[in-house]
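On clarity, I found the account of how folds are encoded harder to follow than it need be. Since the whole study asks how a given chain folds, the encoding of that fold should be made plain. For the editor and my fellow referees, an illustration may be useful. An entry of this sort, consisting of the sequence and the corresponding backbone structure tokens, reads as follows:

:::
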Amino acid sequence: ICAGTSTSITADAGFNNYNWTANPALAFTTTVNNPSVTPAVTTVFTINAKDAKNCDVSDTVTVTVDSFTLSSTITHNDTCADSDGQVLITITGGISPYVHSWSSGQGNVNPITNLISGPYTDTVTDSLGCSQQITANVNDPVGFWYSATVTEPTSCVVSDGQISVTAIGAT
């Protein structure tokens, strides 16, 4: 099952005193024959019951949880209003192949390139149909500021004044 979803586990009807337990231990115990479960990790459920002759019966069922995580590597734009940003999504876990669906319409590609500044959301779906979303923000470089040094002219008639301006910051 996909992480965060539920499934039913079922023991044959016709037994008495159903007792389900879970490993790893969950805040879970029930006495019905078909409980709904939502494990966060792959979990082995054990059923103990009594048959019609009051004999003990036991069985196990494993619920495999498909989970994966996403991380992004962002290349920001080199200059203001440029379109050389890039987002690469790294997937850990899940079952390949993966399908990428970008909010900006780039389709099933990874990385996406030639990006202007802004948010880009990728919905990744693995081969079992489980999905995760991640948003990455491509930025333009921080703006620039300047420093100016003024040297006043020595007199009104002499043209020996100077202004020196130094830009600091963006390229």
